């Protein structure tokens, strides 16, 4: 997964790739019951976190990839940055409203795969998940873990994964 910002390409990697035990234990799951009034079909939906894998980038954001519980179908990619709008204007280097809205999110980023359910999933994730301060703290913690890991030389990363 890639994104373009200010002429630089940022690429995103799954948190699960480097921290499978933590990700398995802490992946958020949304359950839509049979008697829900939602237009989203009943079932379980996983929010799989991805973070920017460019070592010098400090964008302080995540992509939440919404998958069906079986993990086979990607339904939405939701971008979310937890810092202030002012932070993203400074980080991006311009106050382009549309770009800053997409960086800060929550948003459905242009160029990412989105199903017909994506707009409803964005609303649901915004209301149920991104309004939870404990979940936001978890995202920040995962971001720090991820960025610390990718800051290591590649040879040390492999050693860390084998421990």
Would you kindly provide a written description of the structure presented here, covering whatever features stand out?
The chain has 163 residues and is of the alpha+beta class. It has one domain. Helix content is 40%, strand content 26%. The chain has 7 helices and 6 strands; from the N terminus they run ββααββββααααα. The protein has helices spanning 15-18, 20-26, 85-92, 97-104, 118-128, 133-150, 154-162; strands spanning 2-5, 8-14, 28-32, 43-52, 61-68, 74-81. Strands 1, 2, 3, 4, 5 and 6 form a 6-stranded antiparallel beta sheet that branches. The longest helix has 18 residues, at 133-150. The chain is globular, with a radius of gyration of 16 Å. Mean pLDDT is 89; it is low at 2-7.
Quaternary status: single chain
The number of helical elements comes to: 7
Strand percentage, roughly? 25-35%
Shape: globular
Share of residues in helices = 25-40%
In terms of structural class, how would the helical and strand content be classed? alpha+beta
Main beta-sheet strand count, sense and barrel state: 6 strands, antiparallel
Strands, total number: 6
Low-confidence stretches: 2-7
Count of individual domains: 1
The helix/strand series, from N terminus to C terminus, equals EEHHEEEEHHHHH
């Amino acid at each position: 997964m890639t994104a373009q910002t200010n002429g630089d390409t940022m690429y995103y990697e799954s948190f699960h790739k480097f921290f499978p035990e933590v990700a398995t234990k802490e992946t958020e799951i949304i359950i839509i019951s049979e008697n829900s009034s939602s237009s989203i079909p009943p079932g379980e939906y996983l929010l799989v976190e991805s973070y920017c894998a460019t070592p010098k980038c400090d964008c302080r954001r995540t992509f939440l990839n919404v998958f069906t519980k079986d993990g086979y179908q990607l339904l939405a990619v939701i971008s979310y940055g937890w810092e202030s709008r002012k932070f993203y204007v400074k980080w991006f280097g311009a106050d382009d409203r549309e770009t800053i809205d997409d960086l800060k999110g929550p948003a459905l980023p242009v160029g990412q795969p989105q199903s017909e359910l994506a707009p409803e999933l964005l609303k649901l994730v915004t209301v149920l998940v991104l309004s939870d301060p404990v979940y936001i703290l978890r995202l920040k913690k995962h971001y720090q873990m991820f960025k610390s890991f990718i800051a290591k030389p590649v040879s040390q990363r492999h050693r860390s994964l084998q421990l």
